């Protein structure tokens, strides 16, 4: 028994958690590099360019109305965000009210518009002139888009704003009341400013989602001067039988969303450092 033990191979030393994590990362990098290399070697570059990024169609896309479509997308998004923020703030205050009917109305609104797809809401508002002859929403088609998308986004914003209000220390409200400040004034001048500073990052994320939701506007029927990016790219793709216009229009969304994403990340890092 002693001889067998003496002749056995020495046991391998166990890897530390740090060494094991390094090896796992190396394997992941190798797998990723192999996958990228396989895609590059198997892809047909000239064919991909002809289908997805033809230079002549890129130029045609930019010269046939893309700046107008980009401007419309920004206008639809900005207007819907203002409407959503206004209604969302009101809903958040109603949700925190001591008056029970206000809480009920806010709860029903939030649950309804969070459960109904934005496309259905857009179609419903787009058909108001059919259901109510003679009724017109001001600033068509912008007014319809602003109200429809704004009402949907308000349901989500209200929950974010409510969380921000509840995050404000109650001692500040009590201090304001002890100085004789009315509740409404304390809410406007003390609670809401601090709450909005807390919820700016998630509200900016909601703005990014609204930018992408603006692609649903095609459903209400638009004149060419009201096209947003997706509708513009889709129509030009159909007329040219090529994906290039739609790809270029899709890349334009990144022009809007990437700066917002960077802004959100910086604000979150700043808030994280402030809490340390």
Automatic annotation (TrEMBL):
Residues 70-264 form the ABC transmembrane type-1 domain. InterPro entries: AA_ABC_transptr_permease_3TM (IPR010065), ArtM/GltK/GlnP/TcyL/YhdX-like (IPR043429), MetI-like (IPR000515), MetI-like_sf (IPR035906). It comes from Propioniciclava tarda. One of its GO terms (biological process) is amino acid transport. The keyword Methyltransferase does not apply. This is Amino acid ABC transporter permease. The chain crosses the membrane at residues 26-43, 74-94, 115-135, 246-264. Its main location: membrane. It holds the Pfam family BPD_transp_1. The keyword Membrane applies. It comes from the Bacteria. PROSITE patterns: ABC_TM1 (PS50928). GO terms for cellular component: ATP-binding cassette (ABC) transporter complex. GO terms for molecular function: transmembrane transporter activity. Belongs to the binding-protein-dependent transport system permease family. HisMQ subfamily. It is found in: Cell membrane. It is a multi-pass membrane protein. Keywords: Amino-acid transport, Cell membrane, Membrane, Transmembrane, Transmembrane helix, Transport.
């Amino acid at each position: 028994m002693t001889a067998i033990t003496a002749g056995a191979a020495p046991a391998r030393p166990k890897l530390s958690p740090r060494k094991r994590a390094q090896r796992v990362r190396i394997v992941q990098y190798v797998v990723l590099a192999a996958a990228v290399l396989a895609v590059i070697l198997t892809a047909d570059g000239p064919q991909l360019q002809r289908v997805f990024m033809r230079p002549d169609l890129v130029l045609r896309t930019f010269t046939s109305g893309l700046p107008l479509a980009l401007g419309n997308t920004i206008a639809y998004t900005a207007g819907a965000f203002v409407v959503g923020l206004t209604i969302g703030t009101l809903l958040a205050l109603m949700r925190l009210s001591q008056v029970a009917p206000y809480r009920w109305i806010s709860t029903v609104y939030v649950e309804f518009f969070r459960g109904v797809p934005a496309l259905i809401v857009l179609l419903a508002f787009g058909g108001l002139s059919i259901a109510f002859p003679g009724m017109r929403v001001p600033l068509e088609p912008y007014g319809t888009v602003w109200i429809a998308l704004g009402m949907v986004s308000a349901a989500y914003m209200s929950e974010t704003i409510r969380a921000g209000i509840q995050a404000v220390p109650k001692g500040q409200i009590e201090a304001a009341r002890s100085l004789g400040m009315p509740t409404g004034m304390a809410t406007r001048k003390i609670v809401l400013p601090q709450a909005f500073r807390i919820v700016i990052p998630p509200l900016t994320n909601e703005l990014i989602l609204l930018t992408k939701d603006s692609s649903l506007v095609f459903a209400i029927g638009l004149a060419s001067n009201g096209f947003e990016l997706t509708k513009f790219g889709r129509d030009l793709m159909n007329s040219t039988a090529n994906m290039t216009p739609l790809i270029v229009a899709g890349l334009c969304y990144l022009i809007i969303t990437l700066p917002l994403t960077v802004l959100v990340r910086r604000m979150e890092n700043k808030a994280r450092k402030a809490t340390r």
